[in-house]
Every structure is written in C-alpha cells, then in structure tokens.
Design a protein that fits this description.
By secondary structure, the protein is mainly α. It has 8 helices and 2 strands; from the N terminus they run ααααβαβααα. Bound molecules: zinc ion (3 copies).
Length: 170
Amino acid sequence: MRSATRGPVRRVGRLIDRWLIVLDVDPSTRRGYETKIRKHIRPSLGDVPLTRPDVETLDSFYAERRRCREHCDGRPLVQHRAKGTHLCDEHQAEPCTPPDPDKCRACRRACKLHVCKGLADSTVRQIHWIVSGALDHALVGKWISVNRPSTPTSHRCRSHPRLSPSRAAC
Ligand SMILES: [Zn+2]
Ligand SMILES: [Zn+2]
Ligand SMILES: [Zn+2]
C-alpha cells in the first residue's frame, strides 16, 4: 500500500488515512471510526484540500450531519426497501386507505417517502473527535501550520458551547 503511507498529504481524506495508521485504539472502536469515516466524513470532507477545512466548512459539515444522516439533498425522495427491480407498492391497484401497516403486509412493505433524520448527538460528537484528531495529526506531521484557519476548533469550544453545531458537539 504505497498510497496510504507515503507521499504528500494534501487532502483531508489522505490525512485521515495517515491518522488511522497511527491511531491506537481497540479493534472495535477502530471499526466504529472506520464506518463513520466511510459513511459520514469521506463523502463530504475527503476531497477538501488540507489548507481549507476552516471553521465555516466544518460548521456546515456538522450542520449537515445533524440535518440528515442519509445526506439527502432535501428534495422528496423515496426510500426503497430493495436495490433491484421491485414493486414499490404491492397493492398499487387497490391500496389501503388509510395505510394500515399493522394488519397489511403490502402496506408494511411499501417503499416510503424518506424523512430526514439527523445523526445522534453522540455520533456527531464522535465524528467531531475523529476530524479533530486527524487535524491534530496534520499539525504533528506539519502538513498544516498552526496559524492556518484549519486549526482544529476543539480547544476553543468549551468556553462558548452551543454557539454553532461544531462547537455544540464538543
Ligand atoms: Zn421502491
Ligand atoms: Zn395495505
Ligand atoms: Zn434526508
């Protein structure tokens, strides 16, 4: 694996790869981190240049995690129960009115409109911890300098909690 351990660290995704190498936690904690990184961090921060995860980027990142755990774009969206071809409503011709999921199997199985649900506070806190940990690692590796706006916000949070999503996450 030449790519993860060598070469310049220019983007947050690469930084996280490097941080995972030195991270010293038990295997189950690591698995939890890796899942959160894959699902919630990489898709939006992975390609952010390392000089630029500033406070605004991070704040909107956390606000987004709190809005919808599926990272939908806010438009109506059907959450399908299966990936392949399927009938979204098995009693399309004669649907129950109103739907009765307790008694009707077809109602239970019908694909539903997606309702946004934000990540739990504890999950956002862990994500915050991961991102801060990786950014601290960037300081250690001297891939970013202390004076850059990309300084982790974690040490500034305690004095004014709940001002913004990322601070509230501390
Ligand atoms: Zn469907
Ligand atoms: Zn039904
Ligand atoms: Zn959503």
